[in-house]
């Protein structure tokens, strides 16, 4: 997914894109990938590359992992951007939705991927970005069933980390889609109140790196430059 952004961001920054557990070329480490376990994998990558401090940009689940990392390693972060992500835990209703998703994946994971990808976009954008959606679906089909289920299980039980938005020393930005079908925009706005988190509101859905690419890049580059 970062192919949309790295050509611009890499002009002035060293960009490292990590395949999280059970995704891309990274194998699974079990049947539940907690956000803490994924954060440990990120820590291992940074240690291997001898990177002591960095700025994180985490999209959706990547934001949850970034927060888990920040909780354990606050001094290792220069900045953190939560992109179409949230610091709160799953509500009971959301946890039930995760359970339904897990059941659907186990019944037919390729069908689940086809449905889930398109539902990340704002409805009016689904035809406009049909080619992009087709490519994302094709790439996502490579994710093994175990990887999808382990991620869903891990997200379902993740901790609430809203306190990190208030009491951490690094720069923070939250990118929210006004018409995000996954996350409630008003809830994200509430999270940033009485914090030093910069809130960036974009007009479309959960896939800001595609639906609002130019505005996102402008805000990301400005955020990184100011750190």
From TrEMBL:
Pfam families referenced in this protein's UniProt entry, alphabetically: Abhydrolase_1
Keywords from the UniProt entry: Hydrolase
Superkingdom per UniProt: Bacteria
Enzyme class: hydrolase
Residue intervals of the AB hydrolase-1 domain: 1-212
EC number in record: 3.1.1.24
GO molecular function, one term: 3-oxoadipate enol-lactonase activity
InterPro entries, per database record: AB_hydrolase_1, AB_hydrolase_fold, AB_hydrolase_sf
Name of the protein in question: Beta-ketoadipate enol-lactone hydrolase
Native source species: Algibacter lectus
């Amino acid at each position: 997914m970062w192919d949309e952004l790295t050509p611009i961001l890499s002009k002035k920054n060293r960009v490292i894109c990590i395949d999280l557990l059970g995704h891309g070329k990274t194998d699974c480490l079990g049947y539940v990938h907690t956000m803490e376990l994924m954060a440990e994998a990120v820590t291992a990558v940074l240690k291997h590359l001898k990177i002591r401090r960095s700025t994180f940009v985490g999209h959706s689940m990547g934001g949850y992992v970034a927060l888990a990392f920040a909780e354990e390693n606050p001094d290792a972060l220069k900045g953190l951007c939560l992109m179409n992500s949230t610091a709160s835990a799953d509500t009971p209703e959301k946890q039930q939705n995760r359970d339904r998703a897990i059941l659907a994946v186990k019944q037919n994971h390729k069908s689940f991927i086809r449905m889930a990808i398109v539902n990340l976009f704002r409805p009016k954008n689904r035809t406009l970005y049909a080619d992009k959606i087709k490519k994302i679906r094709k790439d996502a089909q490579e994710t093994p069933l175990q990887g999808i289920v382990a991620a869903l299980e891990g997200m379902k039980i993740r901790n609430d980390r809203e306190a990190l938005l208030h009491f951490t020393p690094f720069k923070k930005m939250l990118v929210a889609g006004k018409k995000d079908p996954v996350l409630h925009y008003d809830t994200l706005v509430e999270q940033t109140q009485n914090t030093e988190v910069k809130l960036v509101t974009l007009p479309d859905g959960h896939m800001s790196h595609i639906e609002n690419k130019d505005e996102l890049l402008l805000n990301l580059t400005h955020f990184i430059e100011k750190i």
